[in-house]
Amino acid sequence: MLKLCKLITHPTWRMLQVMYSNQVQISNLTLVNSPSWNVHPIYSSDIIIQHLTIIAPIDSPNTDGIDPDSCTNTRIEDSFVVSGDDCIAVKSGWDEYGIKFNMPTKNLVIRRFTCISPDSATIALGSEMSGGIEDVRAESITAINTQSAVGRGAYVKDIYVRNMTISTMKYVFWMIGSYGQHPDPGFDPKAIPIIKGINYKDIVADNVTYSARLEGIKNDPFTDICISNVNIKLTEKPKELQWNCTDVQGVTNRVTPVPCNLLPQKEIDCPFPEARLPIEDVQLKTYSVTGYFS
């Protein structure tokens, strides 16, 4: 833990941070103009985040909306975020520190979520993901963005996304393995992340510049990518190369524009788990408080 503290070279104020906690409920709040990340649950479990409105200037960096970080069993739903950075950023530690602490983010449900962030992602997986990210289920959202890098280690796997409506985006799909920021020179360049089992289905998009930028890591490709039932309508002046793919492996079905050769067509419907995670059925508790507070 002391080594983690060395990463902080200047104050990084969070609007709301919850650490080493379980059975957490955050609901019916409006958060405005945070100096940094807005909601940051970390090293916690059994979390419900519901009915939040988060507003930050769209030109303000590092004002992430909700950042589940090394958390298990989290549900984020029915919320609205305007941000100059990622609306949701899923994290699990940075480079050698995250590898040593070894606490993944897993069993995460995101649904009925609206994001406005012109230069960032609706949902980013990483880039700080060295403890691992596993079993993320997102539906009724707008876009998703996956970032990783050599030196991260760990994994991002079993990601399921469906029912997305996208309007006016640079990329519909963006997965990149060269997001190369590191906390210090002590990272292990041989710690190669594993990215596999990324599934997208039932997506409608309009006014898009590029369909996809999918860049894995040389000699360590992103694998088991599945994209099905996707209809992308382009801007009036789209880029000629719509699918920019390197070091990725997977399949597609019923996708327009036609994907790259590394994602050949196959008669398949990408999976989305039917079995519900336990956190999906937990009811939000309500409390009433009377009295005067000063």
From TrEMBL:
The keyword Lipid metabolism does not apply. Transmembrane segments: none annotated. GO terms for biological process: carbohydrate metabolic process. The keyword Hydrolase applies. One of its GO terms (molecular function) is polygalacturonase activity. Keywords: Glycosidase, Hydrolase. It comes from the Eukaryota. Belongs to the glycosyl hydrolase 28 family. This is Putative polygalacturonase. It comes from Hibiscus syriacus (Rose of Sharon).
